[in-house]
Amino acid sequence: MSNAKPIYSGRKLGHGFHCAQPILQCGAGSTGIAEIGFARRDGATRLTHLHQRNPLRVLFPAPETDDIDLAVLLTTSGGLVAGDRLAISACLEDGAAAHVTAAAAEKVYRSTGATTIVAQHLTVGEGAWLEYLPPETILFDGARLRRETKIELSAGAGFLAGGILVFGRHARGERLTYGLVNERWEVRRGGALVWGDGLHLDGDVAATIADPACFAGAAACATLMLAPPAQNPAAFLEAARDVQARSSVAGMQAGATVVGGLLVARWLAQDALPLRRAYADLACHLRHTAMGLPPRLPRLWHI
User: Rounded CA gap, 117 and 22, in Å?
Assistant: First the structure.
């Protein structure tokens, strides 16, 4: 197992806004860094900071005319191998709005011992809106992944974020039977922890996934979170459940609740593709109802 641990330092962007910068200790494998900063200038969101290091790159395709700014993460290596480390940060200053996604599903390859480390730090200023919706992460059999996502919200800030995990390459008849998956989320508002979540799979992963009290043999799982700015998330709950019900298919389980000022939705499914569609359906609905944005995701999601 890799001994690399994420450490967070600080970097000042404009107007005194403090951006937490993830840094990873050295070790085997490659270290990729992507830092993105947006601010509101002259009535529009502008890119104010960009730092990138292979194998991470950030692209900025033109958004649709009625949509918010778009940043796309790209892993030039085509996937993550044992010992790779990624540090990703997105910082939005007061009043800015942006959507951050990835160019394609992230693949985590089988490891013979070393662990892939991903540290993600998202900071949203007062009155700002961030969407962080990368496509799915595909875990090859024997993959070892530790991923931590920290979200810091200022007063009146909002975000829509989540992730999809796919347990193996099912089209090839492969399932995740061994390895390591350690996925952690931490959301703070005004410095106070409002929600934390952790998933840990180790040892006999196949037995855990097959257990009816755990994943019930699911091929994939997903979590989507909404923090509506200056609104009660409970106002979105029943409609979110209705969207989940309409998107559901045989072999899928879904639910949503409100906790810590967040709407949290989850899915389990026997097939990753309908789960991905159901996740996207709810994301489209929530960005539209919470922010009045078009009920669609970037075209990259549909390639």
Answer: 12
Q: What global pTM score does this model have?
A: 0.91
Residues facing 209 on adjacent strands: none
Q: Both tokens of residue 1?
A: 């197992």
Residue 83 has a CB neighbour count (10 Å cut-off) of 20
Question: How far is CA 187 from its chain centroid?
Answer: 12
> Is there a contact between 214 and 268 (Cβ–Cβ < 8 Å)?
no
**Contact 84/71 with Cβ under 8 angstroms?**
no
Instruction: Report which residue type is found at 128.
Output: A
**What are the beta bridge partners of residue 38?**
47, 92
What is the spatial distance between Cα 54 and Cα 244, in angstroms, rounded to a whole number? 38
Distance linking the first and last C-alpha atoms of the chain: 35
Residues in the chain: 303
Choose among 24, 239, 186: nearest CA to 115: 24
The pair of structure tokens assigned to 63 is 């958004």
What is the Cα–Cα distance from 162 to 170, expressed in whole angstroms? 22
**What is the residue-level pLDDT of the chain in tens, covering all 303 positions?**
334 444 344 454 444 344 444 444 555 689 999 999 999 999 999 999 999 999 999 999 999 989 999 999 999 998 999 899 999 999 999 999 999 999 999 999 999 989 999 999 999 999 999 999 999 999 999 999 999 999 999 989 999 999 999 999 998 999 999 999 999 999 999 999 999 999 999 999 999 999 999 999 999 999 999 999 989 999 999 999 999 999 999 999 999 999 999 999 999 999 999 999 999 999 999 999 999 999 999 998 876
